[in-house]
Amino acid sequence: MSAGKTVLITGSSTGIGRATAELFQSNGWQVVATMRNPGAGKELAELGNVLVQRLDVTDEGSIHSAVTAAVQRFGSIDVLVNNAGYGAYGILEATSIDRMRQQFETNVIGLLAMTKAVVPGFRARGNGVIVNVSSIGGRLTLPFGGLYSGSKFAVEGISEAIGYEMREIGVRVKLVEPGIIKTNFANAMEFSNDISLWEYQRLVDKLWEVAGSMRANGAEAAVAAEVIYTAATDSTDQLRYTVGEDAKHLAAQRDSQDDSTFFAGLRTLFGQ
Ligand SMILES: NC(=O)c1ccc[n+]([C@@H]2O[C@H](COP(=O)([O-])OP(=O)(O)OC[C@H]3O[C@@H](n4cnc5c(N)ncnc54)[C@H](OP(=O)(O)O)[C@@H]3O)[C@@H](O)[C@H]2O)c1
């Protein structure tokens, strides 16, 4: 079905990226599974037609080495999956500027740098697909989600804009918006807090309570991988693809309600 096509995926060491690498491989694709620590890709590397490459999306040199190695091994790249990312949450007053920069450096600048590195090949051949892994947090926010949602709202805006731009060169841009997925995401998450800022602690506690009940119904990474695969291969102009019942429900609520109604619902959930 893939006819020797190649996908390059960022953040393939674990979670959604790893499940996506496995799915494309099992569907006959050539897979460039990139990750910060290639040691985590030993099992993937043993599968046929998988090239594991070191790539940190905040390190331009590693991006260029990985893209060059991919083209050397497989000839070209047909699909780029910008999946690498993590969640920086917390009280804004308690968040260091370094943490702020790092969140945008990884989730936004990293995705832009990857895209810039891969698109010249797409332009030369007149086709290609970019799948940007956003989040339902790219459509709506929760308290203390300013940095993560800010980064994913940026991914949404960038994807819409480059969708127009790259149509000129035969490239389609897709957005995948997962709800809660059972991966390492929650463990890798940063939460900046300072309990001396007592005024916020009621809401922090409430967030953990709400997040705990949301997490109980998370989908498996394989479900997100299936949606990424569909987005990459369906040959349509559809931009957004939600993953999981929670994301579908929240997106429908956000789309069908005006701002005041939607915000009032969330404030009630958080006891405000
Ligand atoms: N899980 C969820 O509930 C959920 C919901 C919505 C959206 N998402 C999005 O889905 C994507 C994948 O997350 P996941 O759930 O699979 O979480 P995960 O299991 O924590 O995987 C995140 C991946 O991103 C990689 N990564 C982080 N910083 C990187 C960098 N600077 N350069 C290269 N790779 C980097 C991690 O690499 P290391 O192993 O080296 O740390 C890991 O491979 C993220 O963009 C996330 O925002 C997840």
Can you characterise this structure?
This protein has 272 residues and is α/β, with parallel strands linked by helices. It has a single domain (6-269), classed as 3-Layer(aba) Sandwich (Rossmann fold), CATH 3.40.50.720. Helices cover 50% and strands 17% of the residues. The strands form three sheets. The chain has a seven-stranded parallel sheet, with helices on both faces. Strands 5-9 form a two-stranded parallel sheet. Helix 5 links the parallel strand 6 and strand 7 (171-178). Helix 1 packs across helix 8 (221-233), helix 3 packs parallel to helix 4 (97-125) and helix 4 (97-125) runs parallel beside helix 5 (146-167). The longest helix is centred in the middle third of the chain and has 29 residues, at 97-125. The chain is globular and about 55 Å long. NADP nicotinamide-adenine-dinucleotide phosphate binds at residues 10-11, 13-17, 35-37, 56-58, 83-86, 106, 110, 133, 135, 178, 180-181, 183-185, 188.
SSE arrangement:
Elements: E1 6-9, H1 15-26, E2 30-35, H2 42-45, E3 50-54, H3 60-74, E4 79-82, E5 88-90, H4 97-125, E6 128-133, H5 146-167, E7 171-178, E8 181-182, H6 185-188, E9 190-192, H7 201-215, E10 219-220, H8 221-233, E11 240-243, H9 245-256, H10 259-269
Parallel strand pairs: 1-2, 1-4, 2-3, 4-6, 5-9, 6-7, 7-11, 8-10
Helix pairs in contact: 1-8, 3-4, 4-5
The structure holds NADP nicotinamide-adenine-dinucleotide phosphate.
NADP nicotinamide-adenine-dinucleotide phosphate binds at residues 10-11, 13-17, 35-37, 56-58, 83-86, 106, 110, 133, 135, 178, 180-181, 183-185, 188.
